[in-house]
TrEMBL record:
Residues 77-185 form the TNase-like domain. PROSITE patterns: TNASE_3 (PS50830). This is Thermonuclease family protein. The keyword Signal applies. InterPro entries: SNase_OB-fold_sf (IPR035437), Staphylococal_nuclease_OB-fold (IPR016071). Keywords: Signal. Pfam families: SNase. The keyword Metal-binding does not apply. It comes from Shinella pollutisoli. Residues 1-19 form the signal peptide. Coiled coil: none annotated. It comes from the Bacteria.
């Protein structure tokens, strides 16, 4: 296969993944890529990519919550380049590092086993995006294990002394991690 054909196939694959995601996002009410919504502040943050190294961040007016100057809001992951985005209810990319929220398990959105799992996974993903965009979090190491078998860093996300995972569990959007996945259907 020629290099040109390989590049064309790679580009088509990346486009298809994005188009497929847009369909799933619309069907399950997930925010579209580049848009992060925070329920606590009732504000919407729009991130526009001007070039690969420059992003414009526009936030609608909100007087109830002020983010630190160095806080970068998360978006929903949608393409092959993942730097600072939420994958699903228990996985995110933080400054180029893939992190698995170690203290919980949420329903899958990429390969759900049934429609109810897809719907619950979409709700968990939306809520997780809101939680991480409510302000800075502390990434605490999981005792005894730094990475999972997929190379993701295992971390507990904590704000104001409370695990974001515990919040998702209390809202019925996640389970406390038991050491293995359990079915959601």
């Amino acid at each position: 296969m020629s290099f040109g054909k390989l590049v064309t196939l790679a580009m088509l694959s990346a486009f298809s993944a994005g188009a497929g995601y847009s369909y799933v996002a619309e069907k399950h009410g997930l925010p579209l890529p580049g848009v992060a919504v925070s329920r606590e502040t009732a504000s919407t943050t729009k991130i526009e990519t001007v070039s690969p190294s420059v992003q414009l961040i526009k936030t609608s007016p909100s007087t109830s919550h002020v983010q630190p100057a160095d806080f970068t809001p998360y978006t929903l992951c949608s393409d092959a380049i993942r730097i600072h985005c939420v994958v699903d209810g228990d996985t995110l990319w933080h400054n180029g590092t893939k992190i698995r929220v170690a203290d919980i398990d949420t329903p899958e959105i990429s390969k759900p086993k049934c429609s109810s799992e897809a719907a619950r996974g979409a709700k968990a993903t939306r809520r997780f995006l809101e939680l991480v965009n409510a302000g800075p979090v502390e990434f605490q190491a999981w005792p005894g294990r730094d990475e999972d078998k997929y190379g993701r860093k295992l971390r507990v996300l904590v704000r104001d002394g409370r695990s974001l995972g515990d919040i998702l569990v209390s809202e019925g959007l996640a389970r406390t991690w038991s050491g293995r996945r359990q079915p959601w259907c």
